[in-house]
Specification:
The structure is a homodimer of 426-residue chains. The first copy, chain A, has 426 residues and is of the alpha/beta class. The first copy, chain A, is 38% helix and 22% strand. In chain A, strand 8, helix 4 and strand 9 form a beta-alpha-beta unit.
Chain lengths: 426, 426
Amino acid sequence: MLLRNCRFIITQNQKREILENKDILIENGKVMEIGNVTEMGNNLSKKDEFIDCSDKIIIPGLINCHTHAAMNLLRGVSDDKNLQEWLNEDIWPRETKINGEFCYQGTLLAAGEMLLTGTTCFNDMYFHIGDVARAADKSGMRCFLGQVMFDFFDGEKTKKIIEDSESEIKKIIDLKNERINPTVTPHSVETCSDELLIQSRDLANKYNLLLHMHLSETEKEVTDCLKNRGKRPLILLDDLGLLKNKFIGAHGIHFNQEEINLLNQNKFFIIYNPCSNAKLASGICPAWELKSLCIGTDSVASNNNLNLFEEMKFGVLLQRVKYNDVSAMSTQRIFDSATIEGARALGIENDVGSIEIGKKADLGLIDKDNIFLNPNHNIISNLVYSFNGAVSDVIVEGEFAVRNKEIVNFDLEELIEKVEKFREIL
Amino acid sequence: MLLRNCRFIITQNQKREILENKDILIENGKVMEIGNVTEMGNNLSKKDEFIDCSDKIIIPGLINCHTHAAMNLLRGVSDDKNLQEWLNEDIWPRETKINGEFCYQGTLLAAGEMLLTGTTCFNDMYFHIGDVARAADKSGMRCFLGQVMFDFFDGEKTKKIIEDSESEIKKIIDLKNERINPTVTPHSVETCSDELLIQSRDLANKYNLLLHMHLSETEKEVTDCLKNRGKRPLILLDDLGLLKNKFIGAHGIHFNQEEINLLNQNKFFIIYNPCSNAKLASGICPAWELKSLCIGTDSVASNNNLNLFEEMKFGVLLQRVKYNDVSAMSTQRIFDSATIEGARALGIENDVGSIEIGKKADLGLIDKDNIFLNPNHNIISNLVYSFNGAVSDVIVEGEFAVRNKEIVNFDLEELIEKVEKFREIL
């Protein structure tokens, strides 16, 4: 496939180059050449599909580093409670009613929303991840999936939880679909015993997987941890050896200076979730002070959408509020957090996150004449602060997943009818 | 015109009723009936245009209470400065280069963006308002327009400034276009002498017009006013008699308790501008504590768009951050601020702001199958927190201004080409 005469290519390469009027040659799901069509004549065969991109802005597919995709079916069920009440009163009671089908349909709806706003990869934590994987596969997206684990400090449950998680991991590995990757996802220190955390660590080590968990999301999580375990959550995880694994922490709001230093000495990433954190009045992540930062939406139940363009904008605005400083969080850095830094957080920076020769072709195509992107004094600024996320096309590993604003791999209208029925059950 | 079988009508009437599967009959620009088509048979003539709305959500056209529309041409020119530096270094030097044509084209682009996101009325403050009025007229929008005034405490300029403003007001009155209304707009206490403020008051009195100005936007504005005039901005305006007029204050961030009490004893409105205030690190308006609240986007130069749906969402999120309380600002109240309360702020609550018999037909139509609005557990929540603003149709005073996502009254593509040329001048 040849994306011909792309008006702008936001490469997100090391030099953050923005190329103008260049072609992108895609073969076997990868970017083979970036340049002018005459120069790449030798690589063209008759089979190549030519796509005129003279009115398109091409961006790397965005990476949403923290989701609970199936919860798309819970959009708007609870808007005015803090995390504890929201979970205990409105979310967890409903989640007792969910099943594999719920998770399949919910994830498919979430995938539709992510694709239509330019996201090609997500890092998910939920139940029934076999069904989540089925939906992700159907949609054509790239993802990381973990079976959420909590024992609520009931030692009798721990072993079974780990066994179940390992069984799910094996199923994902058996899919042999390199777009779908397993992770290990203990929920948080609020809900997991030391033993569960330790065994999670060992499970991640055994299969060399990413550990993904909620971390220091609320002040209560920190004070409870101090009271019950004598140390703050990050220190507990460090002492239990979890931070020696590949690790990624969601939210990361309540850190003291010692913890920020510890974070910045390590390589693992904190996932900034600005909308969810503000909506639940959990606080604001000290994103500006963190060296390794990616971004996520959390679920629509606390956001209430999966639009990373909106998340980037609010991500900057909230930092300026927190630090009362207009230089808090640059436009380029927040765009990095949703592209190349997101890839780095998940350990896939050699494959995706930027548009470079040899990398996989995970791309978003945007109409340059979109009213929110004009005039074009500063293209990154327009994408971050003004654009509403309505991309025209999305390519994942060289295949269209969105074409002319329509989902390619499933019937969205039919899905919306289907999911409306779950509303009655909840 | 008959909007037939509307799936949902968000009336925003006193009871905040949401009607299902009802028709709306529009005649002479007004809502004549809301009910079932059989019941309104007598009012139907053959001329009536029937619009199937069985897959539409109908909302009152949104009201943007603080804009500088022509500044749409300055989108993205300066993203990382505080209000003073942003004005002095990046905005005012560019504004010396603008002319009537700039203001016409810029306002037309702004009108396109507002219409495509469901806004039917805006309250503007800028230069060359005759040209702003021409653009507003062309677009079909409803608006309030004021020629911005500042004398920078140079007493020799004051008289001429007021004369110019009066001359512009007369021109707008002479248009005899009831959609286009003049206002009196002294810029702020930072830039206007007492004499200019007093004469502004008298000018507004003379023609019975709304006074619209920036108020307590930054801490510096308050400390300068205290230092130079011995009182805080709101108290200064009160003492000069401006608050006895019809008055509306933009931003309204830095108030002490005495000022909040004064505001709540009066009837005039504060315009909450969450995105602009956060982006310029000006602070957060105490919106939750104010009785009379409407909402605005400010200009795209500090936002960087005019999408009131995004503004509503971020408006709630910022209140939760400010007060560290999930009950800060309800979903319904922020929706009110962009509809019926916006109308009240501008003194046009008997004409627009809700969908009721006898009111003008200023309406937004939204596809109920939009992915951001499903599932539909709570329709107001979905509109405020999830929807990206892409309405399908807009009606102003009974006439389509947007039809099937296309601007009706001007060629957007041609306009975007035109405005790109201004970029070179700036």
